[in-house]
Design brief:
Blueprint (H helix, E strand, L loop, with lengths): L7 E6 L5 H10 L3 E6 L4 H6 L4 E4 L25 E4 L1 H9 L3 E17 L12 E14 L5 E6 L6 E4 L4 E4 L11 H12 L8 H16 L4 E4 L4 H13 L4 E7 L7 H8 L6 E6 L1 H8 L5 H20 L6 E3 L4 H6 L26 E2 L7 H10 L4 H4 L19 H20 L6 E15 L2 E14 L7 E2 L4 H14 L3 E6 L13
Parallel strand pairs: 1-2, 1-3, 3-4, 4-9, 10-11, 10-13, 11-12, 13-14, 16-18
Antiparallel strand pairs: 5-6, 5-7, 7-8, 8-9, 15-16, 16-17
Helix pairs in contact: 5-6, 6-11, 13-14
């Protein structure tokens, strides 16, 4: 991880949807990366002393006056630069080349042929499959550049001015659909930028532990522990850095999965911290009585959660507040000169009216996969570190209609059976869960007519959770799951499987 003297690569953001993926791939190559706005002044970039710069893609035509641009001085700093998609067009346009609309736009997987191997393309062995997504292309190269690769419909799929360490590709090397894309980025980092590979988790733990000790001193820290990956890893790191100076408040709203509250408590029983579990199930259920509208349920749960946490945390006046903020939260909220996508509740500092004396956010610079690696290093249980995404309102968004304890208990049991059988079958999906619909259906058990709930099963494959496709669970597994649920969970008479992608649906039902 980033330490005081370790190297950094800058990802200069021009609105590309894959900017976070670029930064993550760079970190996977053991080089620290940060994302900053493409409009950041050259003087500020120079002061950051990066070993290299990557220019992202973006949804613009570079010749449009309203499109984002950069200063020509950026390319005169002597810092190696790799332009990707719009970043390539921007490099060409800024340095005197020409960018024109494509005769044939390229979308999807396109074969690219290397015509002039160089330090970043030598790993491609002549031809490779790449992901293209562009309606413009570099129609005339800037002075000093050479064409390095072509596709059937793009005469400049890559270009380079090697003496100046300026490289560019029209395709997206950061995505899995570009066959040797990560090797291209690795080659840029190590063959061009001179990377040392000094970014690692052990160094992060050491440096962050020291920072936490310096910031907190002998004061106390309070953390709202949800049991999710981010808050759990934050708790484990703080317990290591400042033993017995941390209080974790776990607000149990009664909408966790089967035995989950007990598992969370057990995971932290041997840590050097004070674990406070607030049993607030009846309180939350009473607030939700009669409420069926999804957004209203979310707002009620969110507001009540804050009230419960404030009541419990008021016992620790004069303490620091810890949050499990991670780097994507910071990027999406527009911090660090990045473009604002959406605001996150845990970004922006302490509220004006607060009894806390400061904010501790040790994971603020990490991506989710790095947080999971850190959790494993800190000795957290695998089931906690590898936990599937779980919404803050818990099972309330998977229980359609009014929330009652009876319905939650039915859902808990059915969901546990589903997850157990998926694991037993050795299947790997990005997210899978059960949903208790508000629909009842006629059934038959033995010689008796039943009228019980319909349960829906959901499983998806996704890389970014912005889109997804349904998982093709084997029929045999679905048959076993269904048989167990209708026989073991009294109150559910029918099971259906959701085969809707996102879009048009969302991953959660509410």
């Amino acid at each position: 991880m980033k330490t005081k003297d370790s190297q950094t690569l800058i990802v200069l953001d021009f609105g590309g949807q894959y900017k976070e993926l670029i930064a993550r791939v760079v970190r996977e190559c053991k080089v620290h990366s940060i994302i900053i706005n493409g409009a950041t002044p050259v003087t500020q970039i120079k002061e950051m002393n990066p070993i290299g710069i990557i220019l992202t893609g973006g949804p613009f035509s570079v010749y449009d006056p309203s499109a984002p641009h950069c200063s020509k001085e950026l390319f005169e700093l002597g810092i190696p630069i790799l332009g990707i998609c719009y970043g390539m067009q921007l490099m060409a346009y800024t340095l005197g080349g020409e960018v024109s609309p494509c005769n044939v736009s390229e979308y999807g997987e396109i074969e690219v042929k290397v015509t002039k191997p160089n330090k970043i393309l030598s790993c491609l062995n002549g031809k490779t499959t790449t992901l293209m997504s562009h309606t413009d292309y570099v129609s005339r190269l800037p002075e000093g550049f050479e064409t390095c690769a072509v596709s059937r419909d793009c005469p400049t799929a890559s270009m380079a001015d090697e003496p100046r360490n300026l490289y560019a590709v029209q395709f997206h090397p950061e995505v899995e659909r570009t066959k040797y894309g990560k090797k291209i980025i690795h080659s840029f980092l190590y063959n061009v930028c001179g990377a040392k590979g000094d970014y690692n988790m052990d160094d992060f733990i050491k440096s962050e532990t020291m920072k936490i000790k310096e910031q907190v001193g002998d004061k106390h820290v309070v953390l709202g522990l949800s049991g999710g990956v981010d808050s759990s890893v934050t708790a484990a790191l703080l317990a290591k850095a400042i033993p017995n100076q941390l209080t974790c408040i776990f607000v149990d709203h009664g909408m966790m999965r089967l035995n989950e509250g007990d598992e969370i408590e057990a995971a932290f029983k041997d840590k050097a911290l004070n674990f406070v579990r607030v049993d607030a199930e009846e309180r939350f259920l009473s607030k939700l009585k009669g409420v069926t509208e999804p957004e209203q349920k979310r707002k009620i749960i969110g507001a009540e959660f804050v009230r419960v946490f404030e009541e419990e945390s008021s016992k620790y006046e004069g303490s620091f507040l810890a949050q499990g903020t991670i780097y994507p939260d910071v990027i999406e909220s527009g911090a660090n000169n990045s473009a604002t996508i959406k605001s996150h509740h845990n970004v922006g500092g302490l509220p004006k009216e607060t009894k806390f004396i400061g904010l501790v956010e040790p994971l603020r610079g990490l991506f989710k996969d790095e947080v999971r690696k850190l959790g494993r290093k800190l000795g957290l249980p695998k089931e906690l570190v590898e936990r599937q995404p779980f919404p803050g309102p818990g099972l309330s968004v998977r229980c359609i209609g009014e929330i009652t304890k009876e319905k939650l208990d039915l859902l808990r049991k059915a969901d546990a059976i589903y997850r157990e059988e998926i694991a037993k079958a050795g299947l790997k999906y990005d997210q899978y869960f059960a949903v208790l619909t508000d629909m009842r259906t006629v059934g038959v058990m033995g010689d008796f007519r039943t009228y019980n709930y319909v349960l829906a099963l959901r499983a998806v494959r996704t890389t970014d959770f912005m889109t997804c496709e349904f998982a093709h669970i084997p029929y045999k597994v679905l048959e076993i799951v269904t048989s167990r649920i209708v026989n073991e969970v009294k109150g559910i008479a029918r099971v259906v499987y959701d085969i809707t992608g996102k879009p048009p649906a969302t991953i959660e039902w509410e």
